[in-house]
Every structure is written in C-alpha cells, then in structure tokens.
Amino acid sequence: MAETPSQNTAAYVRVSTADQDAERQRESILNEYDEDTIDWFVDIESGASLSRDQYNDMRESIDDYDVITATEIDRLGRSFSELASFVEELRQKDIGLNLTQQPIDTTNEDDWMADMLLNMLIVLADAERKMIQDRVQQGVDKAMRDGKRVGRPPFGYDVEDGFMYQDPAEYNRAQNFIREVKKGRAKSTTADYFEIPQSAVQSILKRSHQNYEIPFDNDLWTIERAKVEAGEKLLEPLE
Predict the structure, then answer these.
(1) For residues 159 and 168, what is the distance between their CA atoms, to the nearest angstrom?
(2) pLDDT, tens only, 187-218
(3) Residue of 91, 71, 81 lying closest to 25 (CA atoms)
(4) pLDDT digits 0-9 by tens, 109-134
(5) CATH level 3 topology of 9-121
(6) Concatenated DSSP letters for 80-103?
(7) What is the pTM assigned to this prediction?
(8) Residue ranges covered by each domain of the chain
C-alpha cells in the first residue's frame, strides 16, 4: 500500500449485477489509501434500476471530504455532462479527484496530464450537450408542427434563434439546489440562496431527474424536513 494521504477521502464504487467487480475496485483504491481514512459509497445497479442512492449521498456530503476517489471516470457518471458538472464542482470547492486506474490525480498540483484529461472531458461534455439539445429541439419543432403550445424553457436552459441550449451556470445552481433541498432544507430559502426564482422551484423539483439528472421525491423530502424542524437532524448553514 502506498503512503496514506492525510486527507478525508470518499471512495465511490459502482458495479452492475452483470459485472460484479466491487472487490477489484476496492483493492485498487486500498493500494493507495488506508481504509481507516475512507468513507465508502457503493452502488449496485441492475438492468431494471438505475438509481444511485449512494452516489447521491456522496454528492450531498461532498463538503466533508478533501479527496474523491474511484477507479475510473465512468464510475462517477453516466453522461459527459454529468461528469463535467461533478468535475467543475470539485474544482470550485478545491476537492481533489484521484482515479486509481486512470492517469487522473488532481491532488498533485504539478500533474498537468490530469488537468489536460479533465479539460478534454469538458470538451466532450459540450459535444454531448449539443447532441442532447438537438434532440430536445427536434421535440420542440415537432410539437410546433403538431400545433402544440411550447412554453418557456426550464430553468438552466435558454433559447436563442429558436434553439434551446443549456446554461452551465444556471444548470449547476439548479443541481446544487436540488441536492440541498433533499437534505431537508426549506425550499423557498434554499432557492433564494442559489438565486433561483420562486416561480421555478416547483418545476425544477418536479422534473429534477428528467432535466437535471438528480431524482427528487417530495414525500422523502417531507420526512427529512420534519426531522430538521424537530431538531432531530442538524444542517450546516449554507455558505
């Protein structure tokens, strides 16, 4: 085992029922980190279920860690846009990313290769967003041809010259808003913190998975909110 970094580390492992290699991923991570310094987040996906509760838990508690580690980049996201959003959040919060089976380790400030590969990831994310926007636009065009009314784009998206595109800054704010509300925070005050219009709150949460790749269950939120209001669950102030 390599010398243990003196950092709080979140290790993410994701496997499918058709490819049970969780132990291989764990061993790869433990070659670089002492298990006593790691909080493990493990998701096992089946063909019928794409829910990643542990991944979402890790994202919601990301401020507790100095380093996020996994074996490969595709373990951390299903799409380039999701990965790019995650990488950007790590950069903004100065949290390191170490992939034990790929040449990406941003905990080393002199590792120019890691930065180059992450920048390539952002480029690929932009390409994927354009493809998604094209599919969305095709749906809008079809609705208009069928005589259906097409309303305003959802928060985090915009329209220019008849084409809808993603606004990265707003999209990231919407994702962070959803994550914080899921913890049991009040919807209205959390929206104000992230500078999200109150008129957009309901639609963001109702279509959280479809538009922002984060599932939200209002019944579960009600339970978490009750815990917060009863003093059974304490949340750090948003900063």
Answers:
(1) 14
(2) 999 999 999 999 999 999 998 988 888 899 99
(3) 71
(4) 666 776 777 677 667 756 766 676 66
(5) Rossmann fold (3.40.50)
(6) HHHHHHHHHHHHHTT-EEEETTTT
(7) 0.52
(8) 9-121, 152-229
